[in-house]
Amino acid sequence: HIDYTYYDLNPKKGINYYLVGEMKLAEEIFSNLYSSFPEDKAVLQYLERTRDYLKHELPKDWDGVYDMKSK
Q1: Do residues 18 and 46 lie in contact, with contact meaning Cβ atoms separated by under 8 Å?
Q2: Of 20, 25, 21, 22, nearest in space to 10 by CA
Q3: pLDDT value at position 11?
Q4: How many whole angstroms separate alpha carbon 41 and alpha carbon 23?
């Protein structure tokens, strides 16, 4: 278990931004988290997804669910 509170980083806040489609704010949080905790695979996954959405835009029917393009 990683204690993020010491670093004043809040992954729940990043996830909330992600779910409502605020990808720039989510990306900022996940980028800072990843810099501090590069071993956290969930943070990396959210960071990659937010960057992908910033590059390609959110779908018009965004509901917070990521659609995998491949396995």
Answers
A1: yes
A2: 25
A3: 87
A4: 18
What does R_g of the chain's alpha carbons equal in angstroms? Answer: 12
Give the pair of three-digit tokens for residue 2.
């990683």
Locate all alpha helices (DSSP H) within 1-71, ordered by sequence: 11-19, 23-36, 41-56
Angstrom CA distances, 7 to 35, 41, 44, 49, stand at 11, 18, 17, 23
Write out pLDDT tens, residues 22-71.
Answer: 999 999 999 999 998 999 999 999 999 999 999 998 988 998 888 776 65
pLDDT at 38: 95
- Alpha carbon distance 65, 36 (integer Å): 26
User: Looking at this protein, which amino acid is placed at residue 10?
Assistant: N
Tokens 């992954």 found at: 11
